[in-house]
Amino acid sequence: MTRATDVLARLAVMRQGDVPVHGGRTLAYVYDSGLAEVDQVGRDAVAAFAGSNGLDPTAFPSLLQMENDLVAFAARLLDAPDTVVGSVTSGGTESVLLAVQTARDAHPEITLSRRGATMVIPSSAHSAFHKAAHYFGVRAVVVPCGPDLRADPAAMAAAIDDTTVLVVASAPSYAHGVVDPVTEIAAAAAARGVRCHVDACIGGWVLPYAARLGRAVPPWTFAVDGVTSVSVDLHKYGYAPKGSSLLLHRTPALRKPQFFASAAWPGYTMLNSTMQSTRSGGPTAGAWAVVQTLGDEGYEKLALEVFEATERIAGGIAGIDGLHLLATPDSTLVALTTDDTCDPFTVCDEMGTRDWYVQPQLSYQGLPANLHLSVSAATLPHVDEFLEALADSVRAARAAGPVQVDPGVAAYVAALDPASISDDDFDGLLVAAGLVGGDAVEGGGLALPTRMAEVNALLDVASPPLREAVMVAFLDRLSRPTAN
Predict the structure, then answer these.
(1) What is the rounded end-to-end Cα distance, in angstroms, of the chain?
(2) Beta-carbon neighbour count of residue 128 at 10 Å?
(3) Does residue 458 belong to any structural domain of this protein?
(4) Which of 146, 152, 212, 287 has the most CB atoms in a 10 Å sphere around its CB?
(5) What are 364's strand-pairing partners?
């Protein structure tokens, strides 16, 4: 048996290639409060309850208490009525999946009809809704956003018909950081007797404090008539350890189809409130410990810091030649793009060389490729340093010029049909993108490039379905064990 100290040493070496999760320099994937005490209490709670199992609340009543406490805290934030109920999930995607599944199963007469169930979503809705459509057979009716990048309430209302089981709005949308007109969308859904879900996974734990601080926030909570469910992540701006989100329903009756029970086998009667059966108590305990530690006062202070950081970054972008905002942020997410003197993919690479980690977003339906920033409270002390690095990165990108895709490769990509693409086509694309080494076609390993601008530029000229196909092929190659 290998000594524990040796195993931990190996883990430390393996982590050296990961982006940092603390220090405020990673503006994607992680959310950093900047408070060591908060991080520690979360980790300690996860460790203490890692072996607990949320499958059976009668066996682990502590987890049930923590879950109810978290739902109660969120209910106060979200202006929920006394009838509200909720569940802890593993993340925003599971919360969204459950919102769609619950809406579908509330209407078996629609689901089982010849036409089947549909949901009306804006084009800015998180891709988790498309995943839900794929999993549950609920067709997504996608409505284009308006020129302000918000959902178009009139177009959303017009898209509702007798197959619609759910209407969706975002607070804010992930890609652009703006809050949809929830009041109008929810009213249109209610007028047709349809559920309205607000995806507040990324804004739900920070926008309520923004309102308390006197910031102008469009209405989006349960205070809006017609809102029937809200998803909000604890592991984003709740600053809890990864693996915790909440799905709240306005009433127990609305939540009931979410539950699954089965006695159709000789074992125990299975009873689940979420998609998981066995689930570690660690994430729930970690979230509970962080929320108890910070409380309203702590979260309000962190909100003040993260909004100051967001405003300073958004204001600083205006002073950098070659950059502009796609939209004025309503929350803590910033999307910015470049003019034709450079490209966002090269800027992203240049930021990485300066130890800042930002996320590229590809062009979509006329919207340009851009850089996405998820600002954390821990970034506030480093805003000036961030803006200096961003300005330097833009200057370097402008000096290099926009990354170019070979016209022949672009034409080849444009001609491919994702539905009939062959393994050889996949191999050629992966090699052309620099995602695999030349011997990968013969079964060799992946070659992960240190700079991704050329890869992203190639993906950017591909259609969304082809992007999906290429990335699936890449993931397939990436997630294969190597020989020891």
Answers:
(1) 17
(2) 21
(3) yes
(4) 287
(5) 367
Sheet holding 323-325, edge to edge: 323-325, 333-338, 370-374, 359-361
Choosing from 356, 373, 400, the residue where a domain stops is: 400
Domain coverage including residue 90: 43-290
| 330 shares its domain with 454 | no
The number of residues making up the chain comes to 484
Q: How far is CA 406 from the centre of its chain?
A: 32
For residue 166, count other CB atoms closer than 10 A to its CB.
27
Torsion of CA 417, 418, 419, 423, to 10 degrees: 100
Bridge-partner residues for 229, per DSSP?
A: 197, 249
Domain count, the chain: 3
Confirm if 74 and 246 have CB atoms less than 8 A apart: yes
In single-letter form, the type of residue at position 10 comes to R
Same domain assignment for residues 62 and 189: yes
Domain check: are 91 and 57 in the same one?
A: yes
Give the least confident one: 1-5, 262-266, 299-303, 466-470.
466-470
Place of tokens 């804010």: 172
pTM summary value: 0.95
